[in-house]
Design a protein that fits this description.
The protein is an all-alpha fold. The chain has 2 domains: about 1-170; about 180-250, no CATH class. Helices cover about 50% and strands about 5% of the residues.
Length: about 270
C-alpha cells in the first residue's frame, strides 16, 4: 500500500507544477483518495477546513512556511522517546519535497505530500500529548474529536513565529516528565554525537516511562514507573508487573499483532 502510494506521488511529480495554491477541490479530493494512508483522517480534514483548504507546507522558497521546521522535528522524534517509523518516513522524502517547492509537480502531488505531512505532524502532536498507546485516548477516539485538538494546535503553531516551541508545548508539564525529557534529549542529541556509548536499552526504558507519564497527564490515572531521572541520574525500579517488554514491542512496532489499545495494570507511582 505504501509503495503504491509512493509510486503515485512520484508519477504526478513528473508533470509540471502550475501554481502554489492547490485549491479547495484538490485538497478535498486528496484527503478522500488518500484517507486509508492517514492515521488521523478526520483531524486532517478538520485542519484543512480550518485553513480554507489551502496548502499548509508546499510553497516556493520565496514564501515563508514551516515545512523545514516540521521535517526537522520528524527527523528528531527519537529525542522525544518516539519512533521515527510512525510518521510516514517512506513517503515524506526530501527529494520529492525539493521538487514540489521548486514547482516541478502537479497540484495533486503537492496536495498529497501536504496532507501526509499534516497527518504526520498531527500524529506527532497527539503522541507528545496523549502518548502513542494511551489506553483511554485511543487513536480512533482522538480522531473522532476530544477536548485537546491537535489539528487546532498545529494550525495555531503555523500562524506563529515559534513553531517548534508551540509543538513542544503539547507535552506534559510534570517535573517527572520534564526530567526524563531533558535527559533523553541530552543522551540522544548531544552525547550521541560526542562518542558516548548510550545503551539502546536505556533509551527504550526512558521512552516507555515518558509514554506512561503522558497517560498519567491526560487520564489522571496513576501507573507504575520503572525509571525516573533525578538530578541527572537515572533511577530504576523493578518491573513488578512485567509490562515493560510488551509496551516496548508496541512502541517500536515489533509486534504487529498488538493493537493501539494496551491494557496495563493500574498501579500507584513509586513514592519519591
Amino acid at each position: 500500500m505504501i509503495n503504491a502510494f509512493r509510486l503515485i506521488l512520484i508519477i504526478v511529480l513528473l508533470a509540471p507544477f502550475q501554481s502554489r495554491a492547490a485549491g479547495d477541490t484538490t485538497i478535498a479530493i486528496a484527503i478522500k483518495h488518500n484517507g486509508a494512508h492517514l492515521y488521523y483522517p478526520h483531524e486532517v480534514a478538520r485542519f484543512y477546513k480550518q485553513n480554507g483548504y489551502q496548502l499548509a507546507w508546499i510553497a516556493p522558497d520565496t514564501l515563508k512556511t514551516h515545512v523545514w521546521d516540521a521535517m526537522l522535528l520528524l527527523d528528531c522524534v527519537r529525542q522525544y522517546g518516539l519512533n521515527h517509523e510512525d510518521y510516514h518516513p517512506n513517503l515524506l522524502l526530501y527529494p520529492e519535497l525539493h521538487q514540489l517547492i521548486d514547482q516541478k509537480g502537479t497540484h495533486e502531488a503537492a496536495a498529497a505530500y501536504d496532507i501526509l505531512l499534516t497527518d504526520a505532524m498531527i500524529r506527532f502532536i497527539n503522541n507528545l500529548h496523549y502518548g502513542k498507546l494511551n489506553p483511554v485516548y485511543t487513536m480512533r477516539r482522538i480522531d473522532k474529536g476530544v477536548k485537546y485538538k491537535a489539528e487546532l494546535e498545529l494550525f495555531t503553531a503555523l500562524q506563529g513565529n515559534d513553531f517548534s516551541g508551540a509543538i513542544d508545548a503539547a507535552q506534559p508539564k510534570s517535573k517527572l516528565y520534564i526530567n526524563l525529557k531533558d535527559h533523553m534529549r541530552l543522551l540522544v542529541g548531544q552525547r550521541s554525537g560526542d562518542c558516548y556509548v548510550i545503551p539502546p536499552s536505556l533509551i527504550r526504558k526512558m521512552a516507555i516511562n515518558m509514554e506512561r507519564l503522558r497517560w498519567i497527564s491526560t487520564t489522571g490515572k496513576n501507573t507504575h514507573l520503572t525509571c525516573i531521572v533525578r538530578e541527572g541520574v537515572v533511577i530504576n525500579y523493578k518491573d513488578i508487573h512485567h509490562p515493560d517488554k510488551q509496551l516496548e514491542s508496541a512502541l517500536y512496532n515489533e509486534n504487529q499483532t498488538l493493537n493501539n489499545r494496551l491494557v496495563l495494570p493500574e498501579i500507584i507511582i513509586q513514592k519519591q
